[in-house]
Amino acid sequence: IIGQIHANDDEPVRLYYRKLPNNTNGSIYIAHEVLDGDDFYFELIGSRSNSASNPTDGIPLNERFSYSITVEGNTLIVTIVKADGSEYTQSVDMSDSGYDQGGQYMYFKAGVYNQNNSGDLHDYVRATFYKIENSHTGYAFSNN
């Protein structure tokens, strides 16, 4: 997981980068977790399958790419922009996901959250973030 929006107990979105050992390119997909419910997966680049072939449009290790996660009302939009400028976008309607009820605080997390539970003990994960921007509009904030 290279980015996510986390709510009280669940995640409206988790963004995954995954490169299988025999592939040169990695895949990117998201999970949208319904509040107290199931996860729904959306593939943006390649496949999330454990036996996926090398994605021809995938992203190799050490290739820079950018992503944005935007929520406007009940619409979640994830966009990936590869080094060559090609864009991949997924929109998710969260109208029935339960996050629009009161008391659901949310925060963004960027980093690497290793989800590998089938690899070798010497496996590791690493990501470099060159720039992180975060903005919020449409609500009042007070330091009091």
SSE order, one letter for each helix or strand? EEEEEEEEE
Task: List unreliable stretches of 5+ residues.
Answer: none
Shape: globular
Based on DSSP secondary structure assignment, what is the total number of beta strands?
9
Largest sheet: 6 strands, antiparallel
SS field, number of helical segments? 0
Q: Percent helix among the residues?
A: under 10%
**Whole-number average pLDDT?**
88
Structural class: mainly beta
Strand content: 35-45%
C-alpha-based Rg, rounded: 16 Å
Distance between the termini: 34 Å
Protein described:
- With 144 residues, the protein is mainly beta.
- Helix content is 0%, strand content 38%.
- It is built from no helices and nine strands.
- It has strands at residues 3-6, 13-18, 25-33, 39-45, 59-60, 65-72, 75-82, 87-93, 107-110.
- The strands form two sheets. Strands 1, 2, 3, 4, 5 and 9 form a six-stranded antiparallel β-sheet that branches. A three-stranded antiparallel β-sheet has the order 6-7-8, with no helix packed on it.
- A hairpin with a 6-residue loop joins β1 (3-6) and β2 (13-18).
- The radius of gyration is 16 Å and the shape is globular.
- The mean pLDDT is 88.
Key phrases:
single chain, 144 residues, mainly beta, 6-stranded antiparallel beta sheet, 3-stranded antiparallel beta sheet, 0% helix, globular
Gist of the model:
By secondary structure, the protein is mainly beta.
Topology (elements, then pairings):
Layout: E1 3-6, E2 13-18, E3 25-33, E4 39-45, E5 59-60, E6 65-72, E7 75-82, E8 87-93, E9 107-110
